[in-house]
Amino acid sequence: MLEYLQLYTQKVKPLLDLHEEMETVHKDFDEQWKDGNFPGWPKEATGALIRAGAHLDLSAFSSWEELASLGLDRLKSALMALGLKCGGTLEERAQRLFMTKGKHLRELDPSMFTKTKPSKTSSKSRDAERQKEIAIFEAQLYRFVEILSEQRAATRENVQRKQARTGEEREESDEEHFSEDDSDDDDDDVPYNPKNLPLGWDGKPIPYWLYKLHGLNINYNCEICGNYTYRGPKAFQRHFAEWRHAHGMRCLGIPNTAHFANVTNIEDAVALWQKIKSNKEDERWKPDLEEEYEDSAGNVVNKKIYDDLKRQGLL
What we know:
Elements: H1 2-12, H2 18-35, H3 43-46, H4 64-68, H5 72-82, H6 90-98, H7 121-147, H8 149-163, H9 167-188, H10 208-213, E1 219-222, E2 228-231, H11 233-238, H12 243-251, H13 266-283, H14 287-290, E3 292-294, E4 300-302, H15 303-312
Antiparallel strand pairs: 1-2, 3-4
Helix pairs in contact: 1-7, 2-7, 5-6
């Protein structure tokens, strides 16, 4: 709580020297604590009520009869906090507790105390230090309350003004507030996209069912395009006619024809190109073997055999 008030005060009043204010608070607190005048921590709480337990503020009681109205259990816890004997009837407990009002421990009758061990003196001092630390925190909070009095008053007025509005006025103001927030979010915030979906025409991720329908969850890698990844079968089929794939085929010295459709590996493309070239070589027309001649006897032979027979003089 104290840390929050410090940060808020630095934002609201940046020119205020908080260090100097806290030093003043500690100085005033030490004087009030020494005199027993600190609010909420009367002198009897730092004297007779210095022990740990359920302390009871006796300043609000004028007689032991009023204390008796608290009951046995409450009186017992208060007596235990003082280190006094907590036995006896309701009246005895109330009278014993009322006798401690406005007194220190040394002013009380020793017979009223329970038997304590010397080792408990250190725990008493620790309890006193702990109570003093709590009181210091309260002093700092009181000072922050004074510094932020204007902001507290403005907040109270704002809450009262909102409470005085009708239901329709509240709905209208809420709608205006939400519309402003939505517009700010649309302009500034990055769209929530945990599945890394493609963005649509409105700059927002497309629905997941549409993402699955178009097969955009399937990635296709093309080695000819420099290991470029295509999302979805449609983009993968279209890329064979695009410049990136055509450039890769040109670098390999292979024409980008329909024979190489769906071929993405360089090794497969080169092997297919060698096979196509061999097939074309086999299909090419060879005049020495395929050109036909007819001799004087009417026999049909190819050009090579015809030239051999002619050289031998057999025709």
